[in-house]
Each structure stands twice: as structure tokens, then as C-alpha cells.
Amino acid sequence: MFKRKMVYTLGALVLSATLTAPTFASANTSPGTPDQQTFSVEGFINHAELSSKLQQIATSSQGKVKVETVGHSNRNREIYKATVGTGKKVVMIQSEIHGNEKTGTNAILNILQFLGSNSPDAKKIRSEITLVALPMVNPDASELDRRGNDMNWNEVVRKFPQLTTAKPSWNYYTYKNETYDYTSKPGFDVNRDFNPDLNYVPKASDFPGKSSTAGWYITPESQTVRDVYKNLVKEFGKVEAFIDLHHQAPYYEVDGTDNLVTFSISAQFVPNPKTTEGAAYTQYADKYDYDYSRQLNVAVYNAMQQQGNSPFGNISLYPQNQNLPGTALGSFALNGSGTVLFEVRGQTQSFGQKKKGQLVKAVERGLYGVIDGVTDGSVYTIDPEKYESIPLTEGRQ
Predict the structure, then answer these.
(1) Domain housing 273
(2) For the domain that residue 291 is a member of, what is the CATH number?
(3) Whole-angstrom Cα distance, residue 370 to residue 117?
(4) 160 within some domain
(5) 333-359 per-position pLDDT tens digit
(6) Is there a domain that residue 323 lies in?
(7) Measured between alpha carbons, how far is 385 from 291 in angstroms, rounded to an integer?
(8) In which band, very low, low, confident or very high, does the pLDDT at 148 lie, cut at 50, 70 and 90?
(9) How many CB atoms lie within 10 A of CB 71?
(10) How far apart are the C-alpha atoms of 336 and 282, rounded to whole Å?
(11) Is-contact 193 200, C-beta < 8 A?
(12) Which of 44, 74, 199, 395 sits at 20 to 30 Å (Cα–Cα) from 346?
């Protein structure tokens, strides 16, 4: 397993100049906070800062990290793709498809900075994999610090006039409460707008749909992710691993204990097409590789557990038996990618700067579990059945 040294200052993560022999310091504090506390989100990277940071990384890497604009949000903000490495195995990571789930963006930037360095470990990784990162998929939602994008149903119909008679999709938000305002700025849960048919064209008969059916690619954000994925498949034959970085509620516990979950992981987003339960997806059976997804998740779990006594100790499986073909994870799993879900504890409002730094470290460590395992080939030797031994997540009653 590769090792990287990191320096953490003022709650932000900054890679050291030496980029060698990393250590992850343990701490006695929990990465969560009491449920009712609310903290500022100013310490997280906004879209303008992301633009600047990516350019800085690209420049300092002397061309090893390539940054390009691959799409635009509904409010015309750039959606960036960063690529590093020349290996034949593609690891694709995305963050902030939900705009109030931000720790993954910081973790991705740290990893890009390291992989663009002259470290021998970074060079080895670059030779074996091509890492493709979308660090802020939903910049409109990120600026609004909310889950959904900034797009109304009339805009959808203008782009897809065949939907004039359709009802708005089930994932369309129009409510207002003390935290989120979707009344004046409606929006869609972009992570329910994917379809395993990567060439799907929206049709009125598929609306409004429901959580257990595929999405429609009606948002520019999901279209961008799909197009990046399709282009990678065209170039490399497949995307070896797809990792989606999220946050979850702050009150989940490890099943059978009172321990609050630091973050949960998962390999399961649709029923296995090779089983009776997955009969609706039999056309994807030849591509779907649940065992490999389980191996990737065990690699993440093992990397986290190696930390020992730390604020990252309570790692669990996200609730299983999901049927979510409208998610990026569900759609891309059916198209042959090994898939990993990260669900970090809390939302941006539910922890302070120290806790944020700890959770970013947790995400980064877990990502290296995949990156290192694919690079050195160790992930392919993992017994996938070990996935079933990872503790389950249980909601607090």
C-alpha cells in the first residue's frame, strides 16, 4: 500500500512539499456534531475557488494533470474534468452531484495535487491508471448549498418539447422550509436523472416516474456525467471503477451498537441482473460485475480500518437491497463498472471546520484504498464475500 504525507492546517488540507510517507493522525473527537447544531459553510470550496485551484494544480503538475471544461450547469457554470495518468485502467470519481455534500471535492483536489507531483508513488499510479475526476458536478446547487440543481420544469419542456404533456418528474423540488428554498428556485435531484440506457431520449410516457425506475437525462449536469462516461468507454473499453462521493444524515448508527457512523459505503444499487430479483435488468447481465464492486468496497473498508483508533473507525455498509437505476451508480454498474458509494456523516451545515477536516481525510483515505488497490492489482485478489462481513448501517430510532 502506498503512503503519502499530508499537512493539515486551519481545517483545510494542504499537501506538503515533500509528498512522501503520509501519516493520518488519530484524534479523540468524533467527526460528528449534535444533531441540532448549525455551522457556517464558508470553509468549503466554492465554484470560483475550484476554478482557481484546478488551474493551480494543472500548472504545478507541469502538464501531468489536465483540466478541461466538459459541460455547463443550467445556470452556465463550468463543470470541470481533471485527468491524470496514462494507465489502461480508468478510475472515475465524482463529487457534489448534491451541492450540500462537499467534503469529496476537497479530497479530490488533494489527490490530484499528489498525483501531479514527482513522487515515485505518484509516478507508479499514473503509469497504471487514468484517474478522471469531476470535482463539482452540480455547481448551481453548490452555490445554493442544497441538494437539487437550479432548473424549473418549463426549462425542461423548452429543451424537450416532447414532454409538453408530461407531468414533472418525481425528483422535482418546489418546497420551501427554514433551510432550503425551492419555491423561488425549483430544482431536480440530479442523482436521480440517470438511465442505464446511455443513449436514452426522454419520452412523455416515462414521466413522472418513481425512485425504482430509471431517470431521463433531462438535466445538463447528468448529461455531462453521462457524456464523460460514454467517451471513456469509447476510448478505454470500460470504466474500471466509478466512485460517487456523498453525505448522509448525521444520526445513523452501526447496526447493533450506539456508535454513530463516520461514513458508509456500498456496492449495491440495483438487484443483480443474474438473479430473479433483477429480472428487469437481464439485458445488462453480461456486463454487471457485483463481485468486483464488492472487492472495491472491501478495499475501501480495509484502508479505513488500517487507521486503527481514529475518528474514522465507524465504517458501515449503506442500507442494502436498493433498486435505484436512476442513480449514476446504478446506471454505470449495469454498464460494467465496479462501483463504490461513499456516504460521509452529516451535511455541510452539521459540522464545523475541525470536523470537516477529519471527514475530508476519511474520504481521501478511502479513495486511496481503491486507487492503490487497482494500481497494484491487490483489489482483484480480495474475497468478495468479505463485503458481507462489513457492519450494516442502521437509522437511529
Answers:
(1) 6-149+187-395
(2) 3.40.630.10
(3) 19
(4) no
(5) 999 999 999 998 765 555 545 577 778
(6) yes
(7) 8
(8) very high
(9) 20
(10) 13
(11) no
(12) 74
pLDDT tens digits, one per residue of 242-300: 999 998 765 555 566 656 667 889 999 999 999 999 999 999 999 999 999 999 999 99
Nearest to 192 by CA among 220, 176, 170: 170
C-alpha distances (whole Å) from 38 to each of 7, 99, 106, 347, 350 are 27, 17, 20, 10, 5
Spatial separation of the C-alpha atoms in residues 308 and 365, rounded to whole Å: 13
State the cell numbers at 9.
492546517
Tell the residue number behind the cell numbers 462501483, with chain if given. Answer: 339
Those residues whose C-beta lies under 8 Å from the C-beta of residue 83, and which sit 6 or more positions away, are: 65, 66, 67, 68, 130, 131, 132, 133
In whole angstroms, what is the distance from residue 196 CA to residue 330 CA? 7
Rounded alpha-carbon distances, angstroms, from residue 111 to 85, 162, 220, 389:
12, 43, 26, 29
Question: Total structural domains in the chain?
Answer: 1
DSSP 28-41: SS-S---TT-----
Tell whether 103 is covered by a domain: yes
Residues 6+ away with beta carbon under 8 Å from 52: none
Other CB atoms within a 10 A radius of the CB of residue 263 amount to: 29
User: Would residue 169 count as lying in a domain?
Assistant: no
Do residues 369 and 299 touch, judged by C-beta distance below 8 A? yes
Q: What HEC string does 117-167 produce? A: CCCHHHHHHHHHEEEEEECCCCHHHHHHCCCCCCCCHHHHHHHCHHHCCCC
Residue 208, preceding bond cis, omega within 30 degrees?
yes
Torsion 349-350-355-358 (CA) sign: negative
